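Open question from group meeting: does this chain pack into something compact, or does most of it stay loose? Before anyone orders reagents, we agreed to write out a predicted structure and look at it together. Recording both the input and the output here so the notebook holds the full record.
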Amino acid sequence: MPNGPPWQLLLPLLWSWGPLLRRAETGSVGQTAGELYQRWERYRRECQETLEAVDPPAGLACNGSFDMYVCWDYAAPNATARASCPWYLPWHSHVATGFVLRHCGSDGQWGPWRDHSQCEDPEKNGAFQDQRLILERLQVMYTVGYSVSLATLLLALLILSFFRRLRCTRNYIHINLFTSFMLRAAAILTRDRLLPPPGPYPGDQAPVLWKPALAACRTAQIVTQYCVGANYTWLLVEGVYLHSLLVLVGGSEGGHFRCYVFLGWGAPALFVIPWVIVRYLYENTQCWERNEVKAIWWIIRTPILVTISINFLIFIRILGILVSKLRTRQMRCPDYRLRLARSTLTLVPLLGVHEVVFAPVTEEQARGALRFAKLGFEIFLSSFQGFLVGVVYCFINKEVGRDPAAARALWWPRRERRARGRL
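Structure tokens returned:
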């Protein structure tokens, strides 16, 4: 351990244990930040003296060292070493029987991640566990949602692609939208397999991945951001196309399909690629799942908010057109309201209008209950949005029902199940 001025030794401690020091400054366990640093310094010196007094083992072994948190003895390869919770912690009396765990690799090098969960402040640990439980439940919810959406959209995609009578510009756009939903679901489910367990982590100490896993995880993160961006741009394409049909009288339905394809699949690359470059240069940490530098995250977030805003304006415009058309038909009030409500509910999943509810609330503003309300609302609707779109625009679509072959393919399994039930 290099000897240097006290402030040089204090910097790593402040960096890694900022929350601990803030708690100490408020008088936790009767210690100030200065007293805590003195105890930490004494612990470091004792560790250094102990390691110097011990002869290194013969053969391959992980070196004894002080990692700015706890003192590690020499460890055998392919083994999990453990060290008692450091006694300088203000709450050491509550965790005196706990251990810090760290893996010694087969090459005699320490693993990059230590497990110090047994040494955390019991008062804070309960709050972290509650938050972790909420996040785990949210993850289960959207895993179910994306899985159901993936299965539903796959069947809907096969129906719209297979039957010739259903081939038109409108359904081609639906097919691309279904594909973007499927890619988004598959990318998110795959990324979750590669990411560390959901946080929060005490002391902001997230698990560190090995290099091969890190490369695969970052690649999955990049693909996920592209697929999510493509999903939003195809929602925008649906809105623009629907608006053009209602407003631009005499416009060609298929004349702009190539532009739609370029917008839907090409536009996301225009902001995902710059995000990858800036992220690699200025925030190349972990699996890129944590956005500490908000300016970099806004490279991704800004275009998505723009598409949400445009689609919301299109939604309002289309509702105005529908209201005027329904009024000109001089429909009765109950019928008028029913048709308007039905059209509104149909447009909400197609245009992703639900995103507007929490769009003004940034991640910096979302704290506590508001954060979990925002997460729960957006995650639930976003994960099941593909399912709703597939049902509304394929399974209960009148155009699909009018095609005899498509109708038989859609409803034959149900008839077969009913027939078997009568036997």
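Observations to bring back to the group:
The longest strand covers residues 79-84.
The chain has three domains: 1-37, 58-67+74-119, 125-422.
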